[in-house]
C-alpha cells in the first residue's frame, strides 16, 4: 500500500535535510510535525510488512522443503517395502524348490532301497 505524500511534507523534509537533521528521526523540540511522525510510522510499517512477507515466504519454503522430504522418505519406504516383499517371495520360492528337491531325493533313495531289497 502506497501512502501519498503531500507536497508540504516533502518540502518540510527537504528543509530539515538542509538544517542537518535526518527527516525520520524525531527531534526533541516542539516543532516536530505530524507529517514526519506519519512518515516515520509509514517506514516502520513498510519494514514490518516487508519482514512479515519475508517471514511468510520463508515459512512457505520451509513447509515446501518439509513436504519434499516427507515425500522422499515415503517414496523410500514404499520402495523398501516392495524390495522386502520381493525378497520374501523369492526366499519362499527357493524354500519350495529346496523342499521339492529334498522330496525328490528322498523318493529316489527310497526306490533305490526297494530295488536293493528285491534283488
Can you tell me about this structure?
- InterPro entries: RLT1-3 (IPR044977).
- Residues 89-119 are annotated as: Disordered.
- The protein has 119 residues and is an all-alpha fold.
- The chain has one domain (34-118).
- The chain is 82% helix and 0% strand.
- It is built from two helices and no strands.
- The protein has helices at residues 7-19, 34-118.
- It is rod-shaped and about 115 Å long.
- 0% of the residues are buried.
- Residues 14-18 and 26-32 have low confidence and may be disordered.
What are the salient characteristics of this protein?
rod-shaped; 119 residues
Oligomer class: single chain
Strand count, sense and barrel status of the largest sheet are: none
Task: Average the pLDDT over all residues and give the rounded result.
Answer: 80
Shape: rod-shaped
Number of domains: 1
Question: Approximately what portion of the residues adopt beta-strand conformation?
Answer: under 5%
Please trace the helix and strand order, writing H or E for each element.
HH
Percent range of helical residues? over 70%
- How many β strands by DSSP? 0
Measured distance between first and last alpha carbons: 110 Å
Structural class category: mainly alpha
InterPro entries: RLT1-3
Region (Disordered): 89-119
